[in-house]
Design goal:
The protein is mainly beta. The protein has 2 helices and 18 strands. The strands form 5 sheets. Strands 1-2-3-4-5 form a 5-stranded antiparallel beta sheet, with no helix packed on it. A 4-stranded antiparallel beta sheet has the order 8-9-10-11, with no helix packed on it. The chain starts with 7 loop residues before the first strand and ends in a 6-residue tail after the last strand.
Length: 256
Amino acid sequence: TWLNDRPGIIWRAESFFGGNPIYLDTLGRFYNYTSLPDPKTDILNQEAWLRWPASRWTGGNGAADTIRVPLHVRDPNAAPWKLPTQGIVIKPFQAQNLSIIDRAGRMVWGDTKTSMFLVTATGRDTLRIYQISDTAPRFGASARDSVIRAIADRNPRIHDEFLATAKGSDLPDRLPAWREITEDRLGNIWITRYGSNAGVARFDVLDPSGRWLGSVAAPPHFGRAFAIGRDYIADLIEADDGRPALRIFRITKGAH
């Protein structure tokens, strides 16, 4: 859980590698991610952000409205690994749709197979489209084998069954074009990019209008972009004792 006193992410409750944050915009409205039912089948199959009015902070009334996440048809992801007695394990590095809420209360949405990002206020309109060059690094055999070993080592309970079932060749030979979207205090959008070893290599930075500002090299063994300020970036990693840890790095501008 992380609290903040400014627009942006104000609360995050999650497992170490997953979960959705709650966002706050400059008008005091807050947003949480949810699944909505199909009106015909009542099945929860439509993802959306719920936007709550600022009055709800103080116990007042006011209904939430929704920003629907665009439906995007893509090639189906690979089937999970099925272990003989320990259930299934989802294969990593599959394409997915990801979105955030910016400080103006707009959704920034993208598909990790491409480097095009949509900015929308309702999920039905298009306010802006960001487009940057696609970079989907090759995912070499040795890097894929290392991922398999790392998954097994992090999960002692399934270690032996997993190594007997999963193979590096089960993973895609190219990584997704990007990993996550983050907004900094100035409203710039940071796109996390992979390197060939499946770690974080750099960030491509766009200003609020979508103009490309440049790339920032990621610190070694970077985890997840947890918060980005004017001159720092914080990442979330797993410490030696297995617990989440937050590291803060200074951003040096104009360096060569």
